[in-house]
Amino acid sequence: MSSTVQLLTTGAGVGALLPLLTAIVQRPHWSAQQKQYVAVAAAVIAGVVTVASVGGWHQFQYGKLTAATFLAVLAAAQTSYDLLWKPTTLAPLIEAVTTRKRA
Fold first, then answer.
1. Domain segments of the chain as ranges
2. What pTM did the predictor assign?
3. CB neighbours of 72 closer than 8 A, spacing ≥ 6?
4. How far apart are CA 35 and CA 54, in angstroms?
5. What is the CA angle 23-35-16, rounded to 5?
């Protein structure tokens, strides 16, 4: 079993960078609710990848630790977006650049 601190630290690191990856998929014209769904889905996927890569697939038998890792990814993603990526306009810029122009 991987240590709790290792999983949570890795989850927080992944979550801090996740908004930049999520911005590639999201579109500026989407509603706030649609963006929230995408962000939560990305956090769940990133949480699964984090748990599997740090602790292996058998790590999922520890439900509380797995859930805590998902929450660490989600909390770090939301916090880093609100405090860093949104104010610097980097995430919105990525959204705009990766959006196809409508004809």
1. 4-97
2. 0.82
3. 7, 8, 11, 12, 15, 47
4. 28
5. 50
Q: Please answer whether residues 99 and 23 qualify as being in contact, where contact means their C-beta atoms are separated by less than 8 angstroms.
A: no
Quick one: which of 5, 45, 4 has its CA closest to 21? 45
**What is the spatial distance between Cα 11 and Cα 47, in angstroms, rounded to a whole number?**
7
pLDDT digits (tens, 9 = 90+) for 75-103: 999 999 999 998 999 988 898 888 877 65
Name every residue whose Cβ is closer than 8 Å to that of residue 21 and which is 6 or more positions away in sequence. Answer: 42
pLDDT digits (tens, 9 = 90+) for 8-41: 899 999 999 999 999 999 988 899 999 999 999 9
Q: What is the pLDDT of residues 32-67, one digit of tens each?
A: 999 999 999 999 999 989 988 887 777 778 788 888
Tokens of 88: 């610097």
